[in-house]
Design a protein that fits this description.
Structural class: alpha/beta
Strand content: 15-25%
Number of domains: 1
Largest sheet: 7 strands, mixed
Number of strands: 13
CATH architecture: 3-Layer(aba) Sandwich
Helix content: 25-40%
CATH superfamily: Class I glutamine amidotransferase (GATase) domain
Distance between the termini: 73 Å
CATH topology: Rossmann fold
Radius of gyration: 19 Å
Number of helices: 8
Length: 289
């Protein structure tokens, strides 16, 4: 009997070792902005290469805002969108919002990055609050260029191995979160000084009195949400400058986030994958200076 149990256990371990990896679909937006800014395709390809060096996960990239075929969503554990947002956000065109609601009901993870966290208020905004907990709302949130100091982190799988860091980016803040904050955990939190609150913001330049009036308050630039449907989501407001993917902490917290929403194991020291200068210069969109 003991021998039989041992053989069964060995067989289970063998099957586990060869289990299909969790698939993560990375959707990269169309070319946008100037050289080195909003390099959605190059950024997602770098993230894909990084994720595919880790065990238990397989990342695929769809470029130009949406997969050509719906088959790209087959068997996915998570979907992340790094693209221009607002009224042109790829997730809210045609029937896609209902499609993503369907993915969420299946417990599939959802992540949105940089401009991809902005949608119009109303139904799109409420959808984002449901999917990931909050969103960038025009003239409620703001988008200054600044260097927040991320000094401490909550005890969460997404923060594993992440060390304090500061990096200049178009870090959005004052997100329109769910009023109940249900299931939401802030991940990257810092306090803008008065000069940042006083603007100028990237667009509109501001300043907004409600942003100035909140001086001294800490703000969340990345957050995660555990949904009632069993799925997970995150929002990450950095990612304007492609060069920032060369920062190991900036990169690690996003890789950890993608693993977490896909329900893959986040390593004890986080997703440690090296990226060199040559890697950062690959796959950039052809843009006029």
């Amino acid at each position: 009997m003991k021998t039989t149990l041992i053989l069964l256990a060995m067989g289970w371990l063998s099957l586990s070792a060869h289990a299909d990896p969790n698939r993560i679909l990375l959707i990269a937006g169309r070319p946008s902005h100037g050289p080195g800014d909003h390099e959605f395709r190059a950024g997602m390809l770098l993230i894909q290469r990084s994720l595919n060096q880790l065990s238990g996960v397989q990342a695929i990239v769809a470029s130009n805002g949406w997969p050509v075929s719906a088959d790209a969503f087959d068997g996915v554990s998570a979907v992340a969108i790094y693209a221009d947002g607002g009224a042109g956000h790829p997730a809210i065109q045609e029937e896609r919002m209902n499609f993503i609601h369907g993915l969420a009901r299946k417990g599939i993870g959802l992540g949105f990055m940089h401009y991809g966290v902005e949608v119009p208020k109303g139904d799109p905004g409420r959808a984002m609050q449901e999917w990931i907990g909050g969103y960038y709302e025009h003239e409620f949130s703001c988008n200054p260029m600044w260097s927040p100091e991320f000094k401490s982190f909550p005890d969460h799988p997404v923060t594993r191995g992440v060390q304090p860091f500061s990096i200049r980016d178009e870090w959005y803040f004052n997100m329109r979160f769910r009023e109940d904050m249900k299931g939401i955990t802030p991940i990257l939190v810092a306090t803008p000084d008065d000069a940042v609150r006083n603007g100028p913001y990237v667009w509109p330049q501001g300043p907004y009195p409600h942003i100035q009036g909140a001086k001294g308050r800490s703000e969340s630039m990345m957050w995660v949400r555990e949904r009632e449907d069993g799925g997970r989501g995150f929002g990450f407001t950095g990612g304007h400058f492609h060069r920032n993917w060369g920062n190991p902490e900036f990169r690690k917290v996003v890789l950890n986030g993608l693993l977490w929403i896909a329900k893959s194991d986040v390593p004890a020291r986080g997703a440690e994958v090296a990226v060199d200068v040559a890697e950062l210069e690959r796959n950039l969109d052809p843009k006029k200076k």
